[in-house]
Specification:
heterodimer, A: about 110 residues, mainly beta, four-stranded antiparallel beta sheet, B: about 110 residues, six-stranded mixed beta sheet
Protein backbone atom coordinates (compact mmCIF):
# COMPACT_ATOMS: atom_id res chain seq x y z
CA UNK A 1 0.00 0.00 0.00
CA UNK A 2 2.02 2.97 -1.30
CA UNK A 3 -0.48 5.70 -0.31
CA UNK A 4 0.17 8.85 -2.36
CA UNK A 5 3.17 8.89 -4.68
CA UNK A 6 4.65 11.69 -6.75
CA UNK A 7 7.22 11.70 -9.52
CA UNK A 8 9.72 13.11 -10.10
CA UNK A 9 11.18 14.13 -6.70
CA UNK A 10 13.30 16.88 -8.27
CA UNK A 11 13.15 18.64 -11.63
CA UNK A 12 14.98 21.52 -13.27
CA UNK A 13 13.36 23.20 -16.26
CA UNK A 14 14.31 26.04 -18.53
CA UNK A 15 11.87 28.90 -19.01
CA UNK A 16 9.29 27.98 -21.65
CA UNK A 17 9.62 24.21 -21.29
CA UNK A 18 6.59 22.11 -20.45
CA UNK A 19 6.33 19.09 -18.20
CA UNK A 20 3.90 16.94 -16.24
CA UNK A 21 4.12 16.21 -12.53
CA UNK A 22 2.65 12.83 -11.74
CA UNK A 23 0.49 11.94 -8.74
CA UNK A 24 -0.95 8.51 -8.05
CA UNK A 25 -2.84 7.05 -5.11
CA UNK A 26 -3.96 3.58 -4.12
CA UNK A 27 -6.27 4.67 -1.30
CA UNK A 28 -9.40 4.81 -3.50
CA UNK A 29 -9.90 8.44 -2.46
CA UNK A 30 -12.30 10.53 -4.51
CA UNK A 31 -10.81 13.89 -3.67
CA UNK A 32 -7.38 14.89 -5.07
CA UNK A 33 -5.67 18.25 -5.15
CA UNK A 34 -2.43 20.00 -6.03
CA UNK A 35 -0.75 22.57 -3.81
CA UNK A 36 2.35 24.64 -4.19
CA UNK A 37 4.44 25.58 -1.19
CA UNK A 38 6.52 28.74 -1.19
CA UNK A 39 8.45 30.22 1.76
CA UNK A 40 6.21 32.33 3.97
CA UNK A 41 3.10 31.58 1.90
CA UNK A 42 1.91 28.27 3.23
CA UNK A 43 0.20 25.77 0.97
CA UNK A 44 -1.81 27.28 -1.87
CA UNK A 45 -4.35 25.27 -3.82
CA UNK A 46 -3.72 25.09 -7.58
CA UNK A 47 -6.40 22.68 -8.85
CA UNK A 48 -8.56 20.00 -7.34
CA UNK A 49 -10.78 17.12 -8.37
CA UNK A 50 -13.74 15.51 -6.60
CA UNK A 51 -13.79 12.45 -8.85
CA UNK A 52 -12.86 11.08 -12.24
CA UNK A 53 -13.80 13.54 -14.97
CA UNK A 54 -14.36 16.47 -12.58
CA UNK A 55 -11.77 19.17 -11.95
CA UNK A 56 -11.87 22.77 -10.81
CA UNK A 57 -9.55 25.68 -10.17
CA UNK A 58 -8.11 26.58 -6.82
CA UNK A 59 -6.48 29.75 -5.61
CA UNK A 60 -3.51 29.90 -8.05
CA UNK A 61 -4.44 28.00 -11.26
CA UNK A 62 -2.76 30.17 -13.90
CA UNK A 63 -0.08 28.35 -15.89
CA UNK A 64 -1.25 24.89 -14.85
CA UNK A 65 -3.61 22.30 -16.31
CA UNK A 66 -5.03 19.13 -14.81
CA UNK A 67 -7.17 16.21 -15.87
CA UNK A 68 -8.62 13.25 -13.98
CA UNK A 69 -9.37 10.29 -16.19
CA UNK A 70 -9.08 7.69 -13.41
CA UNK A 71 -9.60 7.66 -9.64
CA UNK A 72 -5.92 6.82 -9.12
CA UNK A 73 -4.11 9.49 -11.14
CA UNK A 74 -4.13 13.28 -11.13
CA UNK A 75 -1.32 14.75 -13.25
CA UNK A 76 -0.40 18.45 -13.15
CA UNK A 77 0.83 19.98 -16.39
CA UNK A 78 2.98 23.08 -16.64
CA UNK A 79 2.31 24.52 -20.06
CA UNK A 80 5.22 26.95 -20.40
CA UNK A 81 7.39 27.05 -17.30
CA UNK A 82 8.28 30.40 -15.75
CA UNK A 83 10.72 31.21 -12.90
CA UNK A 84 7.69 32.16 -10.75
CA UNK A 85 6.69 28.49 -10.82
CA UNK A 86 9.81 27.49 -8.90
CA UNK A 87 8.29 25.82 -5.85
CA UNK A 88 7.64 22.58 -4.04
CA UNK A 89 4.51 20.88 -5.32
CA UNK A 90 2.40 18.56 -3.19
CA UNK A 91 -0.39 16.32 -4.29
CA UNK A 92 -2.98 15.45 -1.64
CA UNK A 93 -5.97 13.14 -1.40
CA UNK A 94 -9.02 12.91 0.84
CA UNK A 95 -11.57 10.18 1.12
CA UNK A 96 -14.75 12.05 0.34
CA UNK A 97 -17.62 14.19 1.45
CA UNK A 98 -17.41 13.61 5.19
CA UNK A 99 -13.66 13.59 5.58
CA UNK A 100 -11.52 16.63 5.13
CA UNK A 101 -8.33 14.90 6.31
CA UNK A 102 -5.77 15.23 3.54
CA UNK A 103 -2.96 12.78 2.86
CA UNK A 104 0.00 14.37 1.16
CA UNK A 105 2.46 12.91 -1.29
CA UNK A 106 6.22 13.35 -0.72
CA UNK A 107 6.43 16.42 -2.95
CA UNK A 108 8.23 17.49 -6.12
CA UNK A 109 10.85 20.24 -5.93
CA UNK A 110 10.77 22.19 -9.19
CA UNK A 111 13.30 24.80 -10.25
CA UNK A 112 12.75 26.91 -13.35
CA UNK A 113 15.79 28.77 -14.64
CA UNK B 1 -13.23 32.90 -0.17
CA UNK B 2 -11.77 31.79 3.13
CA UNK B 3 -8.74 33.62 4.55
CA UNK B 4 -6.65 32.06 7.31
CA UNK B 5 -4.09 34.08 9.23
CA UNK B 6 -1.49 32.38 11.43
CA UNK B 7 0.81 33.81 14.11
CA UNK B 8 3.62 33.84 14.94
CA UNK B 9 5.63 32.97 11.85
CA UNK B 10 8.53 31.74 14.00
CA UNK B 11 8.59 30.58 17.60
CA UNK B 12 11.51 29.49 19.77
CA UNK B 13 10.94 27.79 23.13
CA UNK B 14 13.12 26.01 25.63
CA UNK B 15 12.66 22.27 25.90
CA UNK B 16 9.93 21.53 28.43
CA UNK B 17 8.13 24.84 27.94
CA UNK B 18 4.77 25.23 26.22
CA UNK B 19 4.19 26.56 22.71
CA UNK B 20 1.04 28.24 21.44
CA UNK B 21 0.20 28.98 17.80
CA UNK B 22 -2.86 31.04 16.90
CA UNK B 23 -4.99 31.23 13.78
CA UNK B 24 -7.98 33.27 12.69
CA UNK B 25 -10.37 32.56 9.85
CA UNK B 26 -12.84 34.70 7.96
CA UNK B 27 -15.64 32.40 6.73
CA UNK B 28 -18.20 31.64 9.42
CA UNK B 29 -19.30 28.61 7.35
CA UNK B 30 -15.97 26.84 7.95
CA UNK B 31 -16.53 23.84 10.21
CA UNK B 32 -13.32 21.84 10.22
CA UNK B 33 -9.97 22.99 11.61
CA UNK B 34 -6.96 20.70 11.19
CA UNK B 35 -3.35 21.21 12.18
CA UNK B 36 -0.50 19.77 10.13
CA UNK B 37 3.13 19.26 11.08
CA UNK B 38 5.84 19.38 8.46
CA UNK B 39 9.35 18.28 9.34
CA UNK B 40 12.22 19.55 7.24
CA UNK B 41 12.12 18.06 3.75
CA UNK B 42 9.03 15.97 4.52
CA UNK B 43 5.36 16.09 3.64
CA UNK B 44 2.75 17.77 5.90
CA UNK B 45 1.01 15.29 8.20
CA UNK B 46 -2.17 15.75 10.21
CA UNK B 47 -1.54 15.87 13.96
CA UNK B 48 -4.91 16.92 15.32
CA UNK B 49 -8.20 18.33 14.08
CA UNK B 50 -11.37 19.79 15.55
CA UNK B 51 -14.86 20.29 14.23
CA UNK B 52 -17.02 23.33 14.89
CA UNK B 53 -19.31 21.57 17.33
CA UNK B 54 -16.40 21.00 19.74
CA UNK B 55 -14.59 23.68 21.76
CA UNK B 56 -11.45 21.78 22.71
CA UNK B 57 -9.69 18.55 21.84
CA UNK B 58 -6.62 16.95 23.42
CA UNK B 59 -4.22 14.25 22.31
CA UNK B 60 -1.43 13.64 24.81
CA UNK B 61 0.76 16.80 24.76
CA UNK B 62 -1.20 18.49 21.99
CA UNK B 63 -4.47 20.36 22.34
CA UNK B 64 -6.54 22.55 20.07
CA UNK B 65 -9.12 25.12 21.13
CA UNK B 66 -11.76 26.76 18.98
CA UNK B 67 -13.70 29.96 19.56
CA UNK B 68 -16.36 30.11 16.82
CA UNK B 69 -17.71 33.47 17.91
CA UNK B 70 -14.33 35.13 17.57
CA UNK B 71 -13.34 32.92 14.61
CA UNK B 72 -10.04 31.85 16.06
CA UNK B 73 -8.41 28.60 17.03
CA UNK B 74 -5.13 27.69 18.66
CA UNK B 75 -2.67 24.83 18.94
CA UNK B 76 -1.09 24.19 22.33
CA UNK B 77 1.94 21.94 22.76
CA UNK B 78 2.98 21.23 26.33
CA UNK B 79 6.31 19.86 27.60
CA UNK B 80 7.94 20.53 24.26
CA UNK B 81 10.66 18.20 23.02
CA UNK B 82 13.32 18.68 20.33
CA UNK B 83 11.36 16.39 18.00
CA UNK B 84 8.51 18.92 18.09
CA UNK B 85 10.71 21.25 16.01
CA UNK B 86 8.96 21.61 12.66
CA UNK B 87 6.69 23.91 10.67
CA UNK B 88 3.06 23.80 11.80
CA UNK B 89 0.16 24.76 9.54
CA UNK B 90 -3.37 25.50 10.60
CA UNK B 91 -6.24 25.24 8.14
CA UNK B 92 -9.95 25.91 7.89
CA UNK B 93 -12.26 23.66 5.89
CA UNK B 94 -15.80 23.84 4.64
CA UNK B 95 -18.04 23.48 1.63
CA UNK B 96 -17.34 26.07 -1.08
CA UNK B 97 -19.06 25.98 -4.45
CA UNK B 98 -20.56 22.62 -3.58
CA UNK B 99 -17.23 20.97 -2.79
CA UNK B 100 -15.17 20.62 0.36
CA UNK B 101 -12.13 22.89 0.45
CA UNK B 102 -9.36 23.47 2.94
CA UNK B 103 -7.49 26.77 3.19
CA UNK B 104 -4.09 26.77 4.91
CA UNK B 105 -2.38 29.37 7.04
CA UNK B 106 1.13 30.52 6.21
CA UNK B 107 2.86 28.31 8.77
CA UNK B 108 4.78 28.66 12.04
CA UNK B 109 8.35 27.45 12.32
CA UNK B 110 8.75 26.08 15.84
CA UNK B 111 12.23 25.59 17.24
CA UNK B 112 12.62 23.73 20.52
CA UNK B 113 15.97 24.51 22.11
CA UNK B 114 17.45 21.62 24.13
Amino acid sequence: NAGVTQTPKFQVLKTGQSMTLQCAQDMNHEYMSWYRQDPGMGLRLIHYSVGAGITDQGEVPNGYNVSRSTTEDFPLRLLSAAPSQTSVYFCATASGTNSYEQYFGPGTRLTVT
Amino acid sequence: GENVEQHPSTLSVQEGDSAVIKCTYSDSASNYFPWYKQELGKRPQLIIDIRSNVGEKKDQRIAVTLNKTAKHFSLHITETQPEDSAVYFCAAGGISGGYQKVTFGTGTKLQVIP
